[in-house]
Amino acid sequence: MSNSTTAEAKVGNPIVAWFTPQISLARVAVFRVIVYIFVIIDVLTISADVIPHGWTPDLYKPLWLARFLHIPPVSVLGAQILLAAIIVFALMAAAGVLQRISGWIVAITFGLWMFYTQGYGYVAHDHMALVIAVVVLPTVGVARFRDVGATSAKAGWALRVVQISVVLTYFYSVVMKWIASGNITHWANGAVIIWALMRRGAEWSKPFLEMPGLLIAGQWATLVFEFLSLIVLFLKGRWLYGAVIFFMLFHLMTYIALGIHFLPTVICWAAFLPLEKLIPKRFAATR
Amino acid sequence: MDEKKRRLVTNRKPPSESAEESTTAAEPTTAAESATATATATKPEPMTTWSIVWRLGATAMALVILTCGQFLNTNDFFPLGSLTQYATAKDLNGTVNATCIEAQFPGEDEPRRLGFNTDTVGIERGDIESQLDRVIANPELLQPMADSFERLHPDEPKPEQMILCRTVTQLENGRSVGEPEHKILATWEVQ
Question: What is the rounded CA–CA span in Å between residue A277 and residue A254?
């Protein structure tokens, strides 16, 4: 048997090792609680438009995967059943009951819900990391809170994929600005924030419309940190915590000024943190 | 025997040992913690070749689709579509457009501006703006919005006509000038 064909040898490859780090299974158990509880909040608030979409089937504009799978427009009853299924199975998945089955059912039902919230014209980009998290979490298998000392590369891959999705949400948005504008300086020196404030700005933020220079500086700053977001994948310790706090503050600011909360991406930043430390030691050690 | 020979040749530790090493190196820092971790830890099983291959393959494929989504500038591949939100450059001397929806009610002189959201007309402004050409070309698509309004506001009269409109604000060096212009994009006699 040659070296290169064994899994063990592949783990020795630094790229493979980076994509599949050994991390505590308890970290996944905690992350899962955050994600699945948020999924329930999401379907009841942020993406609650699926039930109203049941009344407007003519405006259905299915996305590629929905067309490929021949997913019909949602009916009101269908949306209500889907909502109930998501809530029940997300609660089970968060509690770690029938972990694989409940996780996969949430992946399917929440995926369908996403096609129905995004499939009526507007596609929101804040859900990329969350949808990916819901899809990859069931691949980890069984992960319990008491598994603080047990590590898994499957868990490492799942959280790594979520981390990559989070940073690419920012990094590719710069790429897209470049592509859509032709010249990135046109975007940075343009009136995007002015446009956003005029269309959906909070009353208190309207005076900033009188300071276009400040808003342009804000656009340049946004470009810089979105471009540098990839670095976060390689940060550790205080630098990593600092970066996470920085992005949290950015989202807090855009929420206060524009009502854009980006919460589905915000909660996925938890994938960068040593969540197993939240578990009390006594509980982690008992069997 | 083969396994032992291979380890000697490749100078690698058996999987359980190397995995345990990474566990203890990554997690506990003190001897006491280390002992607890070893006591509670299940030794991580090494992933099979297939397990690694499909994971890396899926990651690579997703990255390719996401990258194509950007360069093709399409949202169609959701959740791996383009990240176009606020990506288009806006001219400091250009215009700011906002789509609006109005309804003409019986007995009222002027059409009334409605909230463009799911609570009022059953759909968000962003959804309609993302398929504006389709709605303008097929104004009968305003009918479901009238139906939703009627369903959501049982105490209000039924609208006679739905008007899809746009407000256009002119910018000059990034500041708005004059009153926003009001344009009618499509009208529909409610049935």
Answer: 30
